[in-house]
Structures are given as structure tokens and as C-alpha cells.
Specification:
The chain has 464 residues and is α/β, with parallel strands linked by helices. Helices cover 45% and strands 14% of the residues. A 6-stranded parallel sheet has the order 3-2-1-4-5-6, sandwiched between helices. A 6-stranded parallel sheet has the order 11-10-9-12-13-14, with helices on both faces. Helix 11 runs antiparallel to helix 12 and helix 12 crosses helix 13. The longest helix has 32 residues. It is globular, with a radius of gyration of 23 Å. It starts with 5 loop residues before the first strand and ends with a strand. Bound molecules: uridine-5'-diphosphate-xylopyranose (UDX) and adenosine-5'-diphosphate. Uridine-5'-diphosphate-xylopyranose binds next to helix 9. Uridine-5'-diphosphate-xylopyranose (UDX) binds next to helix 9.
Length: 464
């Protein structure tokens, strides 16, 4: 039986950081080293004040504090960590390609390939390499090819171990996972490698929750899980538009269908649209794979989930303009929330970015408040779209660290993230300081409609 004592993880991001912190916390006998090329990010992970680690995730700082310097290490010395480890997790980013064949659809595997080449060059002893990033089916095969053909004779086993954690609840998802999925080769060596990883997780996950499959099933399961989850959000969002036209209430519909045990109640919250680094990327990836096998109907079917999501974001922005008498030019619109969901400082693919872009096209002045997102990130996000010059974005968007100031003199408020604190605000005070009539567009259905209407707000929620 292989008992792993030294793990290295390449990539100290939203997946690698929390996952390895939990492994270190739960397996005090295993040394875990997380490496990253980004020296600034590593320095932040090593910051003496644990509250300054680069990722905000409830419970993460405490876990990092408990293990850091004992059996959890953050470093930029990628090669040293690879050399010392028996098991190497690859947790680097796999964004959608922005160039060449598969542009806008396929996953860009350049970071993965770089990792594989680096492992091949450095490794002097046998290694188990674990894919943790979301990858297209059959990436493991590509990694194996590179390792076997460029290495120094060391032998490699490749496992797929997709991560199912959701941001904002990552620590709980890691400590109490619904399941852990491990895919590996069906031959004897493959099975031994699987067993080694099963043993790591068995330190805290019950054996019956650890599923083992072949590599491709594991890779495809991750894409499928995210596609199904995103599809639920697009399905309820599609109904939200119909509800708005017919007088039905989308929350009531969601509740009614969710009580059917075959449907289930989770993931039926209508919103301004899903964001995050996974859903859109994974679906586009799935669409690309289906197309590359000539499966047009399969590709079109899944693509519609993303098309629906884009529509939802767009119609939220259009509705704001329409409701504010067809012009927001020169009007201040306050954004409550910029993160793609609550309890995270991650903004990748956040609906807020796209709504802001549309409103800036209409010459609105946007004032953003988010409890965890830094000003520089907000400008980075909007500049990344490339719609207008950075200078113009700077003029159009103001970032404030106080929600009351963000809403002061605004014509309208748009709720883009479901942060709990928004519900606790003194809404009367906010109303008093706004231009009248004062509008609230609740893109997350979190505020009390009756209360706000009684204060005097013109109040709109998605799907009502
Ligand atoms: C997702 C998957 O849940 C997770 O298993 C996978 O590992 C990574 O991708 P994440 O993107 O972190 O996790 O968050 P998730 O909670 O799934 O939310 C994604 C987006 O959907 C958010 O923008 C969220 O606000 C939105 N959403 C979710 C809704 O609009 N309505 C819902 O009912 C649920
Ligand atoms: P995820 O959400 O998948 O964790 P992130 O972008 O948050 O994605 O994190 C991925 C990390 O991987 C980044 O910090 C990036 O610097 C790092 N990275 C990418 N390629 C390499 C590499 N070849 N070696 C080390 N780190 C890398």
C-alpha cells in the first residue's frame, strides 16, 4: 500500500488553496506544500496576519492558521516542491481560450501543459499526478503523454480528482463532501495510485463517499455536474421572465416544484444570472467537445444554458434603463455587490461586470460597494472586457467602502450579490438620501419587498 507523506500542489488559487489547507489540517502526518509562480500571491498566503491571505472564504483563515508552518507551506520554489513530493496536484487555472482554434469555447490548457513539462523535467522518482483543475475529457491522456515522453525515466500515474467545492462554502464542502471522485487507470499500477489517494481522503471522508472510476468518467462527471447545476439556474431564470409577464411569482413556483422530491429544492433561486469561474467555462468546454465529435444537437442543447444566462444579465440592465424613463445618462446607479455570489471575494464572470458594462454604455455613473472585493479588482474586471478605455471606466465607476455613501444621491440601487448584510441596512436612511423617485432593482430576491415599498421605494425583483 502506498502511504503518501509529501504532497505538492501547483496553483495557490481558489481551488488549490482551500483544498490543500483542509488536507493539511486533516492529515497532520502529511507535509503539504502549495506552490505558485505568482510571488505576490504566495507572499499573501504567508502573511503573518492570517486575515490577509489572498482568498476570502469563511473558515479558511482559521484552518490556514492552524496548519501553516507545521505541515502546510506556501512557496514559489516549484521545482523543489515537485522533486520532494510523492503526489502532485495540478490546480492551475484553465480559462476559456481567447485565441486560435476553439476561441471562446475550448479550455486553454497552456498552464496545464507547462506544469506537465515542468514535472517531467524535475522528477527523479516515481510520482502520482492528480488533476484537480476542471479539464476537458482526455486531458489526463495528454498529460501522461508529455510525462512519459519528456521525463527522465521516472514513472507517472495520472489520476483525475475533480473538485466539487463551491466558493463561499468551500471549507464545509471540503470537510463534509457529498462525494469524492477519483478516476485512474484500470491496470494494477493505476489501482495502486487510486488507493494512495483514497487513503489520503479516508483520514476524514467516510469510505462509502469515495467513488472510484476510470479517468474519463471522472473528467466527464465534473463537466456534467456543473452543466446540470447551471442548467437549473437557467431553467428557473427562463421561468422568471415568464412570471414577470404573467403575474406568477418565481419564488412561489420554485418552492412548489422544489417540493417534488424528484426535482429537489436546491439551486432554484432565480437571479440576475450565474457567474463564477466554472459554470460558463465548463459548459462552453462541453459544447466544444460535443461539436468536435460532430454531436450538433448535444452541443446546441447545452449552449442554450449559457445563451439564457447572457439574456438574463442583459435584460436586467435593459430593465433598469427602461424603468428609469429610458435614460440613465448622468444618473447615479448604486451597485450593492460585485462578487459573483456572497461570502467570496471572487468576481470571475460576475453578473455585476456585464450589467455595469451595459449601463456604462448608457452613460450611467455607477457607484459600487462590495464588502470583500477590492477597488483594483473592480477596475480590472471592467477593463478586461475592453469595451472602452480604462480612463473612461475610471470616470464611469466609483468604488466606495461605505454602502450608505454608495447609495447617497443615487437614482437607483441594483442588488447584484446576495450578501447577508444588505438585509440589515437602515433602508429608511438610504431612501432619505436618494433622488426621488428612488428605485431598487433586487437582482437576487433577498430584500423584503413590502418593507421597501412601504418606505416609498419603487421596488422590483426578478421574476415578480
Ligand atoms: C460551482 C459548483 O457548485 C461547484 O460544485 C464546482 O466545483 C464549481 O462551480 P461556484 O461557482 O463556486 O461552484 O458557486 P455556485 O454556488 O455553484 O454558484 C454559481 C453561480 O450560480 C453563482 O453566481 C450563484 O449566485 C448562481 N446561482 C446558484 C443562482 O443564481 N441560483 C441558484 O439557485 C444557485
Ligand atoms: P482556480 O479557481 O482554478 O483555483 P486560480 O486562478 O484562482 O484558479 O488559481 C490558479 C493559480 O495557478 C494561479 O495563482 C496561477 O498563478 C497558478 N499557476 C498557473 N500556472 C502555474 C505554473 N505553471 N506553476 C505554478 N503556478 C501556476
Amino acid at each position: 500500500m502506498i502511504s503518501v507523506k509529501n504532497i505538492c500542489c501547483i496553483g495557490a488559487g481558489y481551488v488549490g488553496g482551500p483544498t490543500m489547507a483542509v488536507i493539511a489540517h486533516k492529515c497532520p502526518d502529511i507535509k503539504v506544500t502549495i506552490v505558485d509562480l505568482n510571488a505576490e500571491r504566495i507572499a499573501a498566503w504567508n502573511d503573518e496576519d492570517v486575515n490577509n491571505i489572498p482568498i476570502y472564504e469563511p473558515g479558511l483563515a482559521e484552518i490556514v492558521k492552524s496548519a501553516r508552518g507545521k505541515n502546510l507551506f506556501f512557496s514559489t520554489e516549484v521545482e523543489k516542491a515537485i522533486d520532494e513530493a510523492e503526489m502532485i496536484f495540478i490546480s492551475v487555472n484553465t480559462p476559456t481560450k481567447t485565441y486560435g482554434v476553439g476561441k471562446g469555447m475550448a479550455a486553454d490548457l497552456k498552464y496545464i501543459e507547462l506544469c506537465a513539462r515542468q514535472i517531467a523535467t524535475v522528477a527523479k522518482s516515481n510520482k502520482i499526478v492528480v488533476e484537480k483543475s476542471t479539464l476537458p475529457v482526455r486531458t489526463a491522456e495528454a498529460i501522461k503523454n508529455i510525462l512519459d515522453n519528456t521525463g527522465n525515466g521516472a514513472r507517472f500515474q495520472i489520476l483525475s480528482n475533480p473538485e466539487f467545492l463551491a466558493e463561499g462554502t468551500a471549507i464545509d464542502d471540503l470537510i463534509n463532501p457529498d462525494r469524492v471522485l477519483i478516476g485512474g487507470d484500470t491496470d494494477e499500477e493505476g489501482q495502486k495510485a487510486i488507493e494512495a489517494l483514497v487513503n489520503v481522503y479516508s483520514n476524514w471522508v467516510p469510505k462509502e463517499k469515495i467513488l472510484t472510476t476510470n479517468v474519463w468518467s471522472s473528467e466527464l462527471s465534473k463537466l456534467t455536474a456543473n452543466a446540470f447545476l447551471a442548467q437549473r439556474v437557467s431553467s428557473i431564470n427562463a421561468m422568471s421572465e415568464l412570471c414577470e409577464k404573467t403575474g406568477a411569482d418565481v419564488n412561489e413556483v420554485a418552492r412548489a416544484i422544489g417540493m417534488d422530491s424528484r426535482i429537489g429544492s436546491k439551486f432554484l433561486k432565480s437571479s440576475v444570472g450565474f457567474g463564477g469561474s466554472c459554470f460558463q467555462k465548463d459548459i462552453l468546454n462541453l459544447v466544444y467537445i460535443a461539436k468536435s465529435y460532430g454531436l450538433k444537437e448535444v452541443a446546441d442543447y447545452w449552449e442554450q444554458v449559457v445563451i439564457m444566462n447572457d439574456h438574463q444579465k442583459k435584460r436586467f440592465a435593459t430593465n433598469i434603463v427602461k424603468t428609469l424613463y429610458n435614460t440613465v445618462s448622468g444618473k447615479k446607479i448604486a451597485f450593492l455587490g460585485w462578487a459573483f455570489k456572497k461570502d467570496t471575494n471572487d468576481t470571475r464572470e460576475s453578473a455585476a461586470i456585464y450589467v455595469a458594462d451595459d449601463l456604462l454604455n448608457e452613460q450611467a455613473n455607477i457607484a459600487v460597494y462590495d464588502p470583500k472585493v477590492e477597488e483594483s479588482i473592480i477596475y480590472r474586471d471592467i477593463n478586461y472586457l475592453g469595451t472602452r478605455a480604462a480612463e473612461e471606466n475610471k470616470q464611469g465607476i466609483e468604488v466606495l467602502n461605505d454602502p450608505y455613501n454608495a447609495c447617497k444621491d443615487a437614482h437607483a440601487i441594483a442588488v447584484l450579490t446576495e450578501w447577508d448584510e444588505f438585509k440589515t441596512y437602515d433602508w429608511q436612511k438610504i431612501y432619505n438620501n436618494m433622488k426621488k423617485p428612488a428605485f431598487v432593482f433586487d437582482g437576487r430576491n433577498i430584500l423584503d419587498a413590502d418593507k421597501l415599498k412601504n418606505i416609498g421605494f419603487i421596488f422590483q425583483q426578478i421574476g415578480k
